[in-house]
Amino acid sequence: MDAIVTAGGIPRPEDPLYTYSNGDSKALIDVAGKPMIQWVLDALGNAKKVDNVIIIGLSPKSGVTCKKPIHYVSNQGRMLANIVAGVTKALEINKRSKYVLVVSSDIPTLKPEMVDWLINTCMETKDDLYYGVCPREVMEARFPDSKRTYTHLKDMDVCGADMNVTHVRMATEHLDMWESLIGSRKSPLRSASLIGFGTLFALFTRRLTLEDAVRRVCERIGIKGRAIVWPYAEPCMDVDKPSQLELLRADLEEQQSRALVKPKRTVKKTTKKTAKPKAAPVSKKTVRAKKSTGGSKKAATLAVPKTRLKAEK
Question: Which of 160, 64, 60 is nearest to 105 (CA)?
Fold first, then answer.
């Protein structure tokens, strides 16, 4: 599956992250010694299920690298337009592509196994859209100070993921609705209001379960969708505020420090067995008399030549 990485956002002067970006792309903000997007590219490059990586909004001059082939597409100005351009590029690379992975460039703690888990889980069914959510307890167990915005449902509090899977035909259908939903993605109430008053009221009164929410959204847009409940917080932990940036910087610096500390090798102590000295060869002529228990001497002759015996006779 090809991955589309959205990296076209440039913080404006009123944006809290503007001082960190210096007028450049948000994706290039330094996080623990690397551009933020490089952490994402490292995860995608080591994922077994990713074939190509399409970066929207950067050029080869950015200096980012990936183990998988990289294709660059210029910034189209809006998020939906960027996704559509990415899907178009994916179809140029492989006309048989059916699904694409859409990844944000601001989730630097992403790991390769999480990418593979999502693709494997999604491909268990054949839906139009797979939208990931992270339960509040999962997020706060991993990042207690994340300060994420949660949607309060009847059965759980969730926040949205920043890596999802979609069918390629979604890039050409229902574009107006998608534009509105993407624009209000940070506000659950605004998103619910776009779907309908009934959904807004149910959400406001916490009568809406996750399954209900998925069903209403799919009916409103006219698609077949599926919610993916993440067991990992990292794909849902993005950088929107300076506090979140500093949080993930510290987290990745700690990971790097742990990786540098090599485990001590345990050396097994081996005791060499000392060889017993070999006994001196016994003379074939005579063996000296040994004292018996009674104190008398006992003589013995061994292998005495026959000539000597005749002489003694």
Answer: 64
> Cβ–Cβ contacts within 10 Å for residue 186, how many?
11
In the numeric block, the tokens 């008398």 are attached to 296
Angle subtended by helix axes 36-46 and 112-122, to nearest 10: 60
pLDDT in tens, 60-108: 999 999 999 999 999 988 888 898 999 999 999 999 999 999 999 999 9
Tokens of 115: 């990418």
Domains of the chain: 2-260 (3.90.550.10)
**HEC per residue, 163-222:** EEEEEHHHHCCCHHHHHHHHHCCCCHHHHHHHHCHHHHHHHHCCCCCHHHHHHHHHHHHC
Residue 124 per-residue DSSP state: T
Residue 48 tokens read as 């077994």
